[in-house]
Each structure stands twice: as structure tokens, then as C-alpha cells.
Amino acid sequence: xxxxxxxxxxxxxxxxxxxxxxxxxxxxxxxxxxxxxxxxxxxxxxxxxxxxxxxxxxxxxxxxxxxxxxxxxxxxxxxxxxxxxxxxxxxxxxxxxxxxxxxxxxxxxxxxxxxxxxxxxxxxxxxxxxxxxxxxxxxxxxxxxxxxxxxxxxxxxxxxxxxxxxxxxxxxxxxxxxxxxxxxxxxxxxxxxxxxxxxxxxxxxxxxxxxxxxxxxxxxxxxxxxxxxxxxxxxxxxxxxxxxxxxxxxxxxxxxxxxxxxxxxxxxxxxxxxxxxxxxxxxxxxxxxxxxxxxxxxxxxxxxxxxxxxxxxxxxxxxxxxxxxxxxxxxxxxxxxxxxxxxxxxxxxxxxxxxxxxxxxxxxxxxxxxxxxxxxxxxxxxxxxxxxxxxxxxxxxxxxxxxxxxxxxxxxxxxxxxxxxxxxxxxxxxxxxxxxxxxxxxxxxxxxxxxxxxxxxxxxxxxxxxxxxxxxxxxxxxxxxxxxxxxxxxxxxxxxxxxxxxxxxxxxxxxxxxxxxxxxxxxxxxxxxxxxxxxxx
Length: 537
Known about the structure:
Layout: H1 2-33, H2 67-75, H3 81-99, E1 102-105, H4 107-122, E2 134-138, H5 165-172, E3 176-181, H6 215-222, E4 228-233, H7 239-244, E5 248-251, E6 278-283, H8 286-297, H9 301-305, E7 318-321, E8 326-327, E9 330-331, H10 336-351, E10 355-358, H11 364-380, H12 385-398, H13 406-413, H14 420-440, E11 443-447, E12 463-465, E13 468-470, H15 480-485, E14 489-496, E15 502-508, H16 514-523
Parallel strand pairs: 2-3, 2-4, 7-10, 7-11
Antiparallel strand pairs: 1-3, 4-6, 5-6, 5-14, 8-9, 11-15, 12-13, 14-15
Helix pairs in contact: 3-4, 5-8, 8-16, 11-13, 11-14
């Protein structure tokens, strides 16, 4: 008996030892596969994130003036770029600690650029559309010589080697970059939370998120710290923050702005997989968004010439709308605030003799699946197989399991390049189907999110709205479809709800219909409240 016990203990010890070696080996492998951070973490501009002891003087008349008005004042010598830029810089220094909208302020460079802008006006030179006008830029886009961390430890020491395409377009039209704005870790959330910067807050309620991934940019505009922001959108990253902050935000047609390759620190991966990502402007008015869009797309005049002509009379538009997207025997829940605004707008359009139809495009679930599959190739191309298995487990835990996403998880486990072209063909079929829908209607009006900005939610817990519990990621599914198909969409602020929070809708159009969306938005401005300033805290 004693010998048997010894033998059992011996083999148990060997088995445990082997297990320890195996676990240690796996842990060592995983650690070896973890990307090493690029450089050292930058020293933050701490004054951006702390309340100043003394408030700086601010020319308030410039802060909520439109970009159109500011550009005209500079051209006509009614105000200088230096005055306007200084007012915004001082406002940032006074107030940024509330929202953490800006993560870098380029004070010296901005004031030098403003001085040069005023000199050009004094000499009577031809100037660009945004000459001397201050703007903010999402810390996704490269600004030469400035940090581009993606709010991630992995890229903490990366400095942009050149200006990004959209940034260069703004600069060519005379814009003055005030600084770069807050984003989530790796741009991969709808909250501005990450490794490097303090969490971004919503100017209407700092207990809530400004959204993501252009959360800081949207907050900078709503809080009067920039008239225009440059944002990026791969799954609602312009439209959701615009909605949460009560401003306009334009997701452009894929391929119309920039080279089509994302600016990204380190190895960019296969350009073939760079899909669904677009740049676009955010502003407090339709006119400002149109001005910024014209400025950015001016770098690609051939693409602008391909744009569809707008209809200039409201009664000429045929409009589709819906409040809850239905699929199979399910629906994407929408709260009462959004439903009321949508019903009110539909009724107002009908009163104006507009042809309004309650209808929705087909293929919602297929578009959701395609977004996940294209995203897998985009984000996980260079991620080792074993790491991807852990990611699959996390995806399953976070999924509401309402959608048939099995194929997407299979793709994540095996990113076969040979199958990617087939995915693109399926994607094109979805885009063609939506284009067929837009042969019946000029625009589609629908929710951006089920309700207003959510409370800070770092653990991605279920969101409570009107007595319902909504899976965290389900709250953000409405915008994703149009990144899949490439169609343009514009967030329209509808005013504030009873709690003082912005409520918004989005209007979607055919491919290359940015001018139509902007003109339609301008025509319906009298039918809703639009942007409302956040309270002074």
C-alpha cells in the first residue's frame, strides 16, 4: 500500500510539474507575442486636465460664432485670426479640465499660424475656405511632429512623421489646428477611455461620456472650444459623439476623402484590408459642416464632381423613416425620446407636403455580420492565432447573442486572405441592395442610438433605458450598417430632452450624396430645435 501511495504521489508530482511548465510556457509565449510599446510615454500637458487657479480673459463673442462667420470676419478684416485663436486657446485653458476634450494643445504653433494668416489678409492675397479659422483634430489623424498615441500604451511614444491627408487638406484651406482631441484606446469603444489620457466627459453632464471614438472632438465643438472638429468614423465614431453632444456630424462616402489608407502608428498592415474608415467634419450648424466638408474634399476635386446634385425644395424630396429596425422576429429597441423626435419630424415634413413613407432597408443582420468580418481582417491581421482565440472568447462574452455571428467568429479564428475577395463581393451586394432602396427614396431618417449619452460605463455593463436593459454594444448598432455599405450619413441634433441631454437622428442617402444630405438638413432646420449650448458648470 505504501508503495502504491508513493507511486501515485510521484506521478501526481510529475503531472503537476508538467502542467506548471506548460502553463509557464504558454504564459511566456503570450508575453512574447504582446506588442512592445513604441517609445516612452509622453509627459502630458497637465494644465489641460487641472482647473486653473486664475481664469484667463476670453472674447466670448468668438466662442460660439459659426465658422462661416469667423472666416468672413477674418477675410473682411472685421476681426483677426490672432484674436479668434487666442479666445479659443484661453477658453481651452479655462475649461478643458471639465471634459478633457483636448489631449494636446498646440498654442505656440497655432498663434504663429494665426499671425501668418493675418499677414496674408493684410497683403490682399487669395485665401482658403477656412483661412484663419481654428479647428480641432481627432488624435487619430497625423499632425506632423505631434504625439499620435491612439490613447494606447502600445503606441505611447509614437510621433506623426507627416500630416495626414485630411489634416493637410484643412491646412491647405487655411485652418488653424488648436490641438488634438480625446479618443478611446485604439479607437475601439464608444467612450473616450484609454491608457494615456484622462477620461473624456460630456459637456452636458460630466458624469456621462461624450461618445467615441471622436468623443473629444465632439465635446470640443459643443463646449465652444472649436467651431469645427475633424473626426473619423468606422462604426459610428463621428455620428455617435455628434448625437451625444447635440451637434452635426458627417460620415462621408467611403473613398471620397483621403488616400483610403488609415494613418496608423507602426506597421499599417495590408492596405487591402483598410475598409469602412472615413474622415468627416463635426460642427454646430449645417453651414459649418458644409464649409468644413468643402474645405476637406477640395484636395480631391474629381471626387467632388462625382457628387449627386441636391434637390433645393423640400417638397421635392421623397423620405423614408423608421424608429426600430426589425430583423427576423426581433427588433433593436429605441427609447421614447428618440421616437418622439422622429414622429415629430415626420409629421412636420408631411405638413410641408413632403412624401414621407415608413419603410426600412433589408439586410440589417447581414450588414452587422459583414461589419464584424471586415473588422476582423482590419484589426487582427497581425495578431497571433492563440491571442485571437482569447479574443473570440471575450467577443462571445460581450455578445448579446441576438445575431447569427458564428461566421464572424470563424473568420477571426482563421483570417484566410484567399476568402477576403469573396467577402468584398458580398459587401458589394449589400451596397447595391441599399442603392436600390435609394431609388425609391432620396433620404432615410432613423435613430443614431436608442437614447441620449450614456453614463460612464468602463465595464460595458447593460444600459438601462425606459425600463429596458440594452446590451452595451447593442446601443451602438444603428450606425454600423452604413460603414459596411460605404453610404454617407449625417447626424442632426434635435434639441434636448427633459433631462437636458441632446437627442439626435441621422439622415442617410445614396452613395456620394453629401451635398443632398446637407441641403436636406438645411431645409429642415426650421422644423426642429438644433444645437443648444450646454449649461455653464
